[in-house]
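User: Second chain of the day. Same drill as before.
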Amino acid sequence: MRVGTLTTARRGTAALAVMLLCAGPVHAAPRSAAETATRYEAESATIVRGAAESNHSGYSGTGFVNGDNVVGGYVEFTVDAATAGTARIAVRYSNGTAASRAADIAVGGETVFAAHAFRATADWNTWATSTVTTPVTAGGNRIRLTSTTADGLPNLDHIDVTVTAPDSTPPAAPGTLSTSGLTANGVALKWGAATDDTAVTAYEVRSGNTVYKTVTGTPPATTTTLTGLACASPYSLDVVAKDAAGNVSPPSNTVAFTTPACTADGGVPSDITTVSTGWTIPWGTYWMPDGASALVTERDSFEVFRATPAGARKQVGTVPEVVTTGGEGGLLGVAVDPDWSANHYVYFMYTASEGNRVARMTYDGSTLGGYKVLLKGIKKNKYHNGGRLAFGPDGYLYASTGEAQDRDLAQDKNSLNGKVLRMTRDGKAAPGNPFGNHVYSYGHRNPQGLAFDRDGRLWEAEFGDSSKDELNLVQPGRNYGWPICEGSCSTAGMTDPKKTWKVSEASPSGIAVVRNVIYMAALRGERLWRVPIDGENLGTPTAYYVGSYGRLRTVTAVPGRDELWLSTTNCDIHGKEPPGSDKLFRVSIT
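Assistant: Same format as last time:
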């Protein structure tokens, strides 16, 4: 109940309804040369379960509306719009109580804002403005504020309405489009920013009516990398800009090119050189889409570095809340979003206080920020934490998890451990997963290698126990045997690996695919395995660099080149080398 004897007396008459017709708008001062607000006084509107009063100060016009303390009381304005468009409605009100007062705001009988909150003001003589935006039609529009609680409406002074006609002005054409980094299956693109009377919200890379990629953001990036192009094929591309209203700019200049011929399958490691030194347990490596640099994680320092082909490295940040396990936990895998140029997302798998996690951060090319945990509940242990991340050609994020030295978890389809997981960029279970949760495949012991081949198939390497390490072709819903099977077995329902090794010859971590060949880094085996793909089978493995560089942890394909990056982890508890002893190598495939 509001202050004052008139208010108290009126609120005691619950059936009171006062109807006042709109007496016409009053024009308020223009907001700008191109924008004018029209004022509608509340005391001249249609009032139900309330009254026009003037017992407080600071109002405009001849008074204000004091609504009854009931649900369903309302004030309705008739707002004239010269054209259809978007209306910005600034409601001037006072609320001298301690709590917010809520009202439904309807346009033409349809609620567009439910229980909109009008927050408390200092007293009934103190006025505030709450602004909402809604579409309106040409002509008269009934805008009604209806109380939704027994506290009733706040005191309403007036509304100022500004109607903006639909945006019909397209953006200007983007600046000069250019290409770089042309490969058999991709190209990097760069163009100048377009301008618009409101704002550019997206760019589309097109060929005729075919849209190859949409780049969004605030503002959208003016660079992107196209992948998945056909080799030895001509392309003709341009870029257009779009605004929030869907207006499309004229196209940029057209760039024409022909992708190089397809590289023949096969090839062998022919040269190895040192990219950089001074690393301490570099665990994960993932290339940026433009191929100009890679992100590298250090397991025990929790630090993330930018590394370039020329050998430069720079710390770009750390991942929060990471802990070690005194064994093989810590900061593990990293993956860069395929649409990084639009969203700047990168993803990490790591060990935290309660278990292993997947988190997302933003990376602007120089600094990490925006930490957000996406997935928890992955059990941790000193060993068997898995940790590899990879984006599939389907756009979903895949993660490998160990069974955390609890064997039975690998066979439990409701556990996140001993699995390959598949998730959206927000950490939700990906649509189409075989069990309706995050699990993509199960029966894994300690998988640390994930890579997709040119046909979109997923290959996975994992540590065996005492007899057989495995290289698996992973398919959704399949059971890969652990702990019932280690290596191949005859148990019904189990999927056999495509290749196995003695643990002394492998103990595999990272894998990569170049020219239809899998390369597998071996820790205990201290070698790089080359394994050709033959359909859904594998050819004869060949070992390279046996004992030459120590424990090989991660191998990564260099985008657009027949090259690998290969890293050591000789500083870990098994290698026992001093900090700073690890290296990052470049391997040429010819």
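The longest strand covers residues 269-279.

User: Great, on to the next one.
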